[in-house]
Amino acid sequence: RAAERDVVLAPPVAPGRWPLRLDTGHPTLFGRPNDHVPGILLLEAARQAANATVPGFLPVTLRSDFLRYVELDRPCWIEATTAPGGVRVRAVQDAEPVFTCTLGGPDA
């Protein structure tokens, strides 16, 4: 992302693993008061994680599952791995998956 404010992944703690970075004052990702992380922020985290995992990756398909609310007051981890034709991303909070996303590339 060109603007630091739009980066939703904190520096990685291991290859393919980032803390989710929250800016509750962001005008688009937090367009209104929320008591949980908005889904659009998780989708953007998945896109950024996919691009960090496979530099230059351009997703053309996306399948996501929102398993439960991601709470604002606890750490959330974004994990990404390559998969045939794309990248798999999941968000984990309290050692449980809370969101999964598979992004497919042009050749998927």
**Total strand count, please?**
5
CATH class: Alpha Beta
Which stretches are low in confidence, meaning pLDDT under 50 for 5 or more residues running?
Answer: none
Instruction: Please give the largest β-sheet.
Output: 5 strands, antiparallel
Q: Quick one: overall form?
A: globular
Defining traits:
1 helix, Thiol Ester Dehydrase, Chain A, 108 residues, 5 strands, five-stranded antiparallel beta sheet, single chain, globular, 31% strand, alpha+beta
Summarize the entry for a quick read.
The chain has 108 residues and is an alpha+beta fold. Helix content is 14%, strand content 31%. The chain has a single domain, classed as Hotdog Thioesterase (Thiol Ester Dehydrase, Chain A, Roll), CATH 3.10.129.10.
Textual characterization of the structure:
- The chain is 14% helix and 31% strand.
- The protein has 108 residues and is α+β, with helices and mostly antiparallel strands.
- The chain has a single domain, classed as Thiol Ester Dehydrase, Chain A.
- It is globular and about 40 Å long.
- The model has no long low-confidence stretch (mean pLDDT 93).
Topology:
Blueprint: E1 17-19, H1 39-53, E2 61-66, E3 76-83, E4 86-93, E5 96-104
Antiparallel strand pairs: 1-3, 2-5, 3-4, 4-5
